[in-house]
Every structure is written in C-alpha cells, then in structure tokens.
C-alpha cells in the first residue's frame, strides 16, 4: 500500500513538472521553451526560453536538435548603430547562479530547413546538449506568428 502511494505521488509530481513547462539538465533549469508559428513556405523559425544555472560551476549550451528541422543553430545578437545582426555562435555560456534569456532580438535557437510549418497551439520537441548537464529533451509550445513573449500559463 505504501509503495502504491509513493508511486502515485511520483507520477503526480512528474506530471506537474512537465505541465509547468520546466525542464532540468543537472544544474541548468530550462524554463518555458517556446517558438513562433511560421507561415506556409517558411523554412526557418526561432526558439526561445530561459536557461538558469542554479549551480556554482559554469555550464554551456553546446548544441540543439529538432526532428522538425534539418539543423538547429545557436544564435546571438550583435547590436550595431542602426541594426541588429544575428550571428551563429559555438556555444551559449551559462555563468553560475545566473539566468540567460533566449528571447527575440537576443540569444535564440534558429531552426533551419523546417520540414513543415510550425502551427500555433502545437508543440515542438527539441534536444538540448549542455557541456556539464548532458542531453535533455524539452518541448516548446508554439505561439502566434510575431509573438514577443511565451504563451501565458494556463494554471
């Protein structure tokens, strides 16, 4: 009986963690991954999230992959005098005890060679690989075209 109650409690806890759109890779919290929907024919998309390093040792996001795209690049923003240029980076540093925001106009994941459009209301599976935290599967919610923030929590 006690074992059944423990298993039930673990299942409920696991469901609430997944429902809250949060994931973990060792000391890195991946909070509310999201992407913008794409119009038909669009072959690229961006993915955003908050990466929080709760540990006291630096980590780095080294790469990402998604079944929905031929490849995923890590991008950073280079701000010029009158424009913002996106550039591919080898890794995204995650300093200890700090958050790094992947958001419009800044760091993001760039999906290249989409196999089909991203549709608002759907989800997008991704695999992130961290230097210390290893690989973790996450799910991004797809929100409206042109959205500037993640979809609101429904709790």
How does this structure look, described?
The chain has one domain: Immunoglobulin-like (Sandwich), CATH 2.60.40.1890. 12% of the residues lie in helices and 50% in strands. It has one helix at 2-19, and strands spanning 22-25, 28-36, 44-53, 59-65, 69-79, 84-88, 92-94, 99-102, 108-114, 123-130, 134-143.
What layout of secondary structure does this protein have?
Elements lengths: L1 H18 L2 E4 L2 E9 L7 E10 L5 E7 L3 E11 L4 E5 L3 E3 L4 E4 L5 E7 L8 E8 L3 E10 L12
Parallel strand pairs: 2-11
Antiparallel strand pairs: 1-2, 2-3, 3-8, 3-9, 4-7, 4-10, 5-6, 5-9, 10-11
Q: H/E series, N to C?
A: HEEEEEEEEEEE
Can you count the beta strands?
A: 11
Biggest sheet statistics: 11 strands, mixed
Percent of residues in beta strands?
A: over 45%
Shape, principal axes of CA atoms: globular
Mean pLDDT: 86
Low-confidence stretches are 1-20
Query: CATH topology, what is it called?
Result: Immunoglobulin-like
Helical proportion, percent range: 10-25%
CATH H-level superfamily title? PCu(A)C copper chaperone
Count of domain modules: 1
Termini separation comes to 31 Å
Radius of gyration (CA) equals 17 Å
CATH class, please? Answer: Mainly Beta
**Quaternary:** single chain
Count of runs of 4 or more consecutive helical residues: 1
Pairing-aware structural class of the strands and helices? Answer: mainly beta
Which CATH-level-2 architecture?
Sandwich
């Amino acid at each position: 009986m006690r074992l059944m109650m423990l298993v039930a409690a673990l299942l409920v806890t696991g469901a609430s963690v997944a429902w809250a759109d949060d994931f973990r890779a060792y000391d890195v919290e991946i909070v509310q991954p999201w992407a913008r929907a794409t119009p038909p024919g669009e072959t690229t998309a961006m993915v955003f999230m908050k990466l929080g390093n709760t540990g006291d040792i630096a980590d780095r996001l080294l790469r990402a992959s998604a079944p929905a795209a031929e490849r995923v690049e890590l991008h950073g923003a280079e701000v010029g005098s009158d424009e913002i240029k996106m550039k591919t980076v080898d890794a995204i540093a995650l300093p200890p005890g700090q958050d790094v925001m992947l958001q419009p106009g800044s760091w993001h994941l760039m999906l290249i060679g989409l196999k089909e459009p991203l549709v608002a209301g759907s989800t997008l599976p991704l695999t992130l690989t961290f230097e210390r935290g290893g690989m973790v599967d996450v799910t991004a919610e797809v929100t409206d075209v042109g959205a500037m923030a993640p979809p609101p929590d429904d709790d």
